[in-house]
Each structure stands twice: as C-alpha cells, then as structure tokens.
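Quick board copy: two proteins, each given as sequence then tokens.
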Amino acid sequence: MIVSTINVNGIRASVKQRSPENLGMLPWFKETSADVVCLQEVRADDEQLADAVAPVLADGWHLASAAPHVRGRNGVAVLSRTPFDEVRIGCGAEEFASHGRYVEVDTAGLTVASVYFPTGEAETERQLEKERFMAAVADRMAVLLDSGRPSVLCGDWNIAHTENDIKNWRGNIKKAGFLPQERQWLTDLLATGWVDVVREAHPGVAGPYAWWSWRGKAFDNDAGWRIDYQLATPDLAARVASVHTERPAAYALRWSDHCPVTVDYA
C-alpha cells in the first residue's frame, strides 16, 4: 500500500495548466504509484471537488471528502484506487464536525485519515482553536491506536516538530507552527506509540521539507518547513519500505506551495 499526502492549496488552482511545461496536478495522478492520496486545503465543496478531479475519477479512483463550512477555506479528501469500506467525517469533536479538516476512510485493510490543522496565531483565539483541534485529533488517535487496526494520519499539521523541521527556526520560536506547546504536544503524541515515518527514514538531518513560500527565493534556497506528516501505528510503520518527498525539479513546475510526501508500506 503506497500512500501520498499533499496540501493542494486550492484544488481548482492546482489542476489548472500553468505553462506549457507545467500542466498542473492531473498529470501527477497519471504517473503516481500511490494507492491512496490524501488532499488538504481543497477549498471547494463536494461538487466542485468532484468536478476538478473528474479525470482522476474517470480512471477508476474513488473519492471521499469533507467539505468546508466556510466557502473557499479548508476542505480535505481521500482518493483511493480501491473502494471504501467506510467513510467517517470529523474527528469526533462537535466543534469541528463541519469544518472540513478531517476525513477518515477504511480501505484495503487500512485506516487512512486526511487532516488539515489550523494555522493558528500566537496568543490569540485562533491559537486556542488550533489547540482544541489538536486535543480532539489526539483523542481520536488514541482510539485508533487502541483498536489495533493499521492506521495512518496524513496531512498538513501546521507544526514543525524540531529545529530540523524548519530552516529558519530561530526566527519562528514565538510564532504559530513552532511554539513550544505545539512541539511538546507532538512529542507527547509520538510517545504514545505513533511513528513519524518520514523522520524515521531521515534521522538527524534538516528536512526533507515539503512546504516553501511562493515568495522570494524560499524554494530555490530550500528554506522550507516540514509540516506534512504521515503518522502511522507501530505495526504499519514497521512495514515502511521507502519514503519519498516529491520536490519539483524547478520553481516553475510547482502546482502547490507544498509537494507530495509518499510512503510505501510494503
């Protein structure tokens, strides 16, 4: 089972042809070996999303999505080559049930969730909302871990865990995404048994980053953040055969400000 995750930064923008060399996201789907693809920040309702990925669905993929409650924001989805046995929207907290931040599927003997954490903003209500969402997701992950079912949560967590996960860590110590309490929350979550499979495959090194600002020379200088995670249950993590961060070869070939993160669970 090969699983990819990508924040598309707007599904309708990501599928558009940007240049003769950059045809958008759809050719990536033609070439990917992934069996399951998790999407975040689709910024579309269910009908708009299905229309944007119509060529993918025509190739036999199956779609599950959680539309955002605010037009043009959030939205997550899972595309799978195999049918879904079950689809669950939301992580169990009533506050976030309609926010389009969490969708979970059972397919091919695996539970896969696509999750999009709030950005937050230090010392504001936005940060408190983010932390409530973090707590709700942790509660759901505890249930999944206790179930014994092989599971993986994929997505944009909007948290860089360590100094190796953000190029300019010194300049972001007091900013959302690298706050001490966010980083400790992730440390505590991993201590329960979940495995950051990308970091396990790249121990003790900077990156590999999967988000770079559109502005300036961030991409060219690889001044990025590693905020796109796949957290797997221990039994599933033990099956990892390869991890690949699909960084485009050039700025002009980007169809999102993130890039796909792909893991082969052999």
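And the next:
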Amino acid sequence: MGLLDKKIEKHVELLMERYPKLMSVREDIINGYIVLENCYRTGGKLLIAGNGGSASDSEHIAGELMKCFKIPRPVSKEYAKKLISIDSKRGPVLAQNLEQTLMAIPLVAHEALTTAYINDVDGVGVFAQQLFGFGKKGDVFLGISTSGNSKNIMNATVVARASGMKILSLTGAEGGELALVSDVAVKVPENETYMIQELHLPVYHCWCLMLEDKFFGK
C-alpha cells in the first residue's frame, strides 16, 4: 500500500525483533497501519468489536488511542486559552491535564444499548446496529475474532461496507470469513485461541505506537 517514514517503521522493526513469529504478517501489519493513518488523517474514527478476550482488546485499544500512550499530547494553546477564558478556576487545570485524542469507540462498552438490542432483537446483529448508528464513510471498523467466523462481527462487516467504511481485522492463522471480507487482515500465525490473543496484543500496541508517533511525535 505504501512506504513508511523511518520514525514510524522503527516500531515495526522493534515488534519483529521482539516477536519474530510475526515476520510472516509484517506487510499486513504495515498495511493495517496505513489504513488507520489514512482514516485519522482524513477526519475518521476507529470502531472496534470482539467477543470475550477480544472484547477486552477492543477496550484496551481505545484506551491507548484516546489518551497519551507514550508521547505527551497537550491540547493546543488556542484551546487552552478558551478553557481558561470560560472558567478561571477549572480552566487552567483542564488546560494542563487534557490530552489530545485519536477517536476510537469500543462497541462492546455500551451495555444499556447492547443488552436492549439483544433482548429485543438478537445477539448477532448488535455490533451491526451500533456501526449503523456510530459509523460513517471514511471510518474504519476493526473486527477482532480468533476464528474469523464470529457471527456478530460478520454482520457488522456488512454494515461497514454498506456505509463506506474500511474493514481491518485481527484473526488467527485460518482467517475465516472475516479475512476474506477485510481490506486488510492480520492473520497471526497461531491456531489456539489464547495463543492468537497473545499475538494480537503486540500487533495493536504497535499500531497505537505508530499512530501516536505520526500524529503527536516531534
């Protein structure tokens, strides 16, 4: 898909050094990052979903993107001035403590909405409903499924495609249906669920480091 800046590529090289098993999916990791970079550069956001441990990964990713991961992300001087002008007491504290974000929404985190949908309709369309409400053209849907065949993730990909979103996925070695419909699929080279999840984490940590360096690094 494209070449990386040297300062961004260094994160991939460190990942390969620490997890040589991921060398087989190096290009997919890079291509996945490029999808994410393009999304954020053009004003889009990331929507993430998974089940079980992958649901936890969804929230983990959002946590790394919505605040400082490694690099300080102070708000702009202009925004800081606005905060202070609005409230002379709270404004300075907010100006000092707020951090710039890369918008990421974990679809697993909306219990009232998801349980209502599951109760009233079904469980396999719950992420699709959220994507229909939250998503727009130019966003990215990241589906995390160790099998690549999770029904609720696959339903969400249909809505993502209909809405003009890119589809990025993290799966196991087989990839399943999810890999087939993804713009980029990172099929980590493991087949056992917990082992797949153990390799998903360093991949998405690498993406978060790369994105933060791109948008907030000096």
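Board note added afterward: DSSP finds ten helices and five strands in the chain.
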